Amino acid sequence: MDDTRATSQRHTPVLLDECLDMLAPALDAPSALLVDCTLGMGGHTEAALRRFPRLSVIGIDRDPQAIALASERLLPFGERFRAVHTTYDRVDEVVARHSPSGLADGILMDLGVSSLQLDEADRGFSYAADAPLDMRMDPTKGPSAADLLASATEAEIAKILRVYGEERFASRIARRIVRKREEAPLERTGQLVDIVRDAIPAPARRTGGNPSKRTFQALRVAVNDELRILERALPAALSSLRIGGRLVIESYQSLEDRLVKEAFRAGSTLDVPVDLPIIPESEEPPLKLLTRGAVLANEEERARNPRSASVRLRGVELVRDWKEPS
To answer: pTM here?
Structure first.
């Protein structure tokens, strides 16, 4: 089995057909351009390039390993694909630099940690195997999770766990982290798993899956600045679309989905007095919602692909020139 085939087998894109169906009206045109803001191992991009033969794709990823694997996988598509190593909040710069028109027809974001990062134990994203406590999506830049836990105060750690992980035992876990790091540096995921297990009361550990899940999520979000990048990326993406272009986003945790939902709601809602007899065209909202609520994976997909259990899919179409809601 060759490396490209191995890459395609390592990741099953979530709600793939639903994403492409939502993007299709914007992509089924000559010289259409899609920006895959979270390239990963290239599953969404490969499917889009196969389905839309006149499409080109720019794939963005901050992970050098993902760029290398996806680029190899997508070699058969030649110049129809190009990869850019950066964070996706710079999508407007990427589009301005690489799009002949300066705009994109479609933009896709598949948020959160990738299968590549979870499957590579040495990256430290998973609580299932002992590994270096890293969690950086780009392992060449910035402080690791171990660095964060070594330098943050107890209050800062508790806030990270409470806000980014929605962990109700955040203070207990933070207190134990600080106590344990005084005995020895926290450098392994196994150490953190033990700390979380010992900090959470036994009755609470019996339900809700692995008790370390929320702590690992919170640290990963903090280490990679994920929510602030998403906050910056949403207006950057919308300002990069042509009229009629579409932005489609898959979220896997409530904090991400809340940001997406609010941005889409604000951009699709009239902001004029309710008794105004005529609505000026300039005041019409720039976005049209493509989903009523969020699209969820059905039981069949959840059984086939466990990662789909928490997905929330939303999309919008740009119907007027983008301007950020006041």
So the answer is: 0.90
